[in-house]
């Protein structure tokens, strides 16, 4: 028999969870031992066909700074403004730790690639929530660099069929941000009983 008991503490967390702005995250960040259960929790994401169409790249301090330099060179090469480059670079230069969720689709006659994409997105949310539930500040970001093929291939080691689903920045947040407006449930929900 499976355990289907209510978990009110988990529901309370989900009803009140808030990301922490990446620009406000600082050291310390989780070390490898503290990050491992967060990654394990994220990897428990629904995965139709058990294809595991995603993987993780953990960016520690030196890697983040190297990628900040690569953001600058890719931005210059693609004609980005100094402001665009500085904003994108700041995410790498100031982050204490980040986990990149790589969408890595697998060939399948039964599982459409879009379902694999959804699974990779679900991993991002699971990773974000696991980090927050573990007491860390966390934020899910992307930005123009993750759509630059040179950046993702040279900087993150992606192959031609892979792409970044999200980058989860993790660190210490000194303060909680104010809650933001949430969708009106009545406007986004249709109930069907027949």
UniProtKB/TrEMBL annotation:
Entry annotated with the keyword Transcription regulation: no
Keyword NAD: yes
Keywords: Flavoprotein, FMN, NAD, NADP, Oxidoreductase
Top-level taxonomic group: Bacteria
Cofactor: FMN
PANTHER family: NAD(P)H NITROREDUCTASE YDJA-RELATED
Name of the molecule in the record: Putative NAD(P)H nitroreductase
Organism, scientific name: Roseovarius nubinhibens
Taxonomic lineage: Bacteria, Pseudomonadati, Pseudomonadota, Alphaproteobacteria, Rhodobacterales
């Amino acid at each position: 028999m499976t355990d289907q008991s209510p978990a009110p503490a988990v529901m309370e967390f989900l009803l009140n969870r808030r990301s922490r702005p990446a620009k406000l995250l600082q050291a310390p960040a989780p070390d490898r031992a503290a990050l491992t259960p967060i990654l394990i929790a994220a990897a428990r994401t629904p995965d139709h066909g058990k294809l595991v169409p995603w993987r993780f790249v953990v960016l520690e301090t030196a890697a983040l700074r190297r990628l900040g330099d690569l953001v600058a060179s890719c931005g210059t090469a693609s004609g980005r403004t100094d402001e665009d480059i500085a904003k994108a670079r700041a995410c790498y230069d100031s982050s204490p730790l980040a986990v990149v969720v790589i969408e890595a689709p697998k060939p399948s006659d039964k599982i459409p690639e879009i379902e694999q994409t959804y699974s990779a997105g679900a991993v991002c949310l699971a990773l974000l929530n696991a980090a927050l539930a573990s007491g860390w500040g966390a934020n899910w970001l992307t930005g123009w660099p993750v759509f630059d093929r040179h950046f993702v291939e040279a900087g993150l080691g992606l192959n031609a069929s892979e792409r970044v689903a999200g980058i989860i920045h993790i660190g210490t947040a000194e303060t909680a941000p104010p809650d933001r407006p949430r969708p009106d449930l009545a406007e986004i929900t249709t109930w069907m009983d027949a």
